[in-house]
Amino acid sequence: MAERSRELVALVEAHPLPPRRGASGHVLDDLALASSRYAIAAERNGTSDLWRVWLAIERERGRTRGQSIDSLSPQGRRWLALWAFDQDDDDALGVDAYAAFLERPGRMAPQDTETLRYVRALSRAGRLDEALATLDRLGPRACVETCGLVAELIAAGRAPEAVDRMRAVVHVYDDSSFAWAHLALALGATGADEEMRHALRESALHEPLDPRTSMELALATLARGEHLNAWCGPEGPSRDRSWVEWRAASGERLVPSEDPSPHTFGGDLLELPDCRCGRRIRSVFVLDVREISLLHDRLPRWSLVPLLACADCVDWMLRRDFAFEGRALRLVGVHGAFQACDPTPPVAPLSTRPARLVPNLPDEQGFADWRYTQVGGVPFWVQGPRRVRCRSCREEMVFVAALASSTGFEPYVPINNDSGFQYHFACNECRTLSVLGQWT
Fold it and tell me: Which phi and psi (to 5°) does residue 400 adopt?
């Protein structure tokens, strides 16, 4: 082996790679090959310390940080950045690597919680304006990232700017407790107490808040001499309470039928739009709500309701809103960043098969069995309860169904990677359909 630094030799000994078949010599004989092998292994292992070995090899080669980062794949840059953010003293490396990933992300869209780490690292480095420029490039759909910089803007004496940015976010995410809560924090910092009260009440209408946000709100209202509940009204939805409610009203489930039925699996009864990935959205089931007593009284203007999914991308992670125009369904909004398309061949067309409704019984643990699609009743929320409001009239929507993977039907359509549900809500007056997912 050629002479190498003791630091590099020690790191390779501590983090060896499996020997290559038919190869002879030491892994460090060829530094360029060693760098490539460690980069591939580190990318496959995510945030492992194999990145430390790769960095030492790159230093031994005399390469600059920019040259080293440019040699990585988009996912390599992403994982290097996340590993660096996990270290105590490597924000600069993480910032450079993640900036390169954002510039050329490849097939996978940046994830909001990861981009939040990047903009917070910029802020810690005294580069708040650069962090805000990143938000500007992402646009108002950058909900989590914008919320994450509200405290930094307030601390920098720029609370009015925080208000403006959060108003743009809640215009897109008007059903997000997280967004409304951070608008409330920004409004409170400007002294707009009445508007803060309104934002807190809106926050309480949707999903429960995370502990950190709840604590920030509690401190902000205590500073005004009041308890948080006096500002935001009744307690928001509780997952434990929603599970109790579900057991009392678990609805029905869809199973294959040997006889003709008003409800179907697959088929082309309705004209469906393309997903943003370019492939056609699927109607996994079609329900005739006129034949479902649990739904007909609440949706008298509806006849057929499709249970929708795109089997070819991960837009299922986002809320999608549809509007009916005759027998055609139009995609009117997707609330979140674009997600990567699955490169595998599309799921086969779904030929029409009859489906029938049977009682929806809980599993052995008393919870919903997400092998089966639930129709009517109360939704079983996997992550946390939501109050879903129509984007048009702002009234609370009617829960129609929780779409699961198509157990018992062929071809099999996996929903949420076989985890959780796609919840379907309808507005009777506006004839709009909203779909949002939760998974484990």
Answer: -100, -50
Q: Single out the residue of 133, 119, 136 nearest to residue 85, CA to CA.
A: 119
Pick the CATH number of 139-236 from 1.25.40.10, 1.10.10.10, 1.10.357.10, 1.20.1250.20: 1.25.40.10
Cα-trace Rg, the chain: 26
Non-local (6+) Cβ contacts of 200 within 8 A are 180, 181, 184, 217, 221, 228, 231, 232, 233
- What is the distance of C-alpha 158 from the center of its chain? 29
Instruction: Please tell me the distance from the alpha carbon of residue 342 to that of residue 313, in angstroms, as a whole number.
Output: 5
Q: Which amino acid is at 348?
A: A
Residue type (1 letter), 286: V
List Cβ neighbours of 33 (8 Å cut-off, separation of 6 or more). Answer: none
pLDDT surpasses 50 at 234? no
Q: 6 near 55, Cβ under 8 Å?
A: no
pTM of the full structure: 0.70
Q: Would you kindly state where each structural domain of the chain is located, as residue ranges?
A: 139-236, 242-438
Sign of CA dihedral 435, 429, 176, 241: negative
User: In terms of Cα–Cα distance, which of 256, 210, 258, 212 is closest to 236?
Assistant: 210
Among 178, 220, 222, 219, residue whose Cα is nearest residue 196: 220
Q: How confident is the model over 140-150, as pLDDT tens digits? A: 778 999 999 99
- 33 vs 40: CA distance, rounded Å: 11
Residues pairing with 253 in the sheet:
358, 374
Burial class (CB in 10 A: 0-12, 13-18, 19+), 283: buried
- Tokens representing residue 332 in the block: 């009117």
Look up residue 315 and give its DSSP letter: G
Tens digit of each residue's pLDDT (9 = 90 or more) over 307-328: 999 877 767 778 899 999 888 9
- Which class for 372: exposed (0-12), middle (13-18), buried (19 or more C-beta within 10 A)? buried
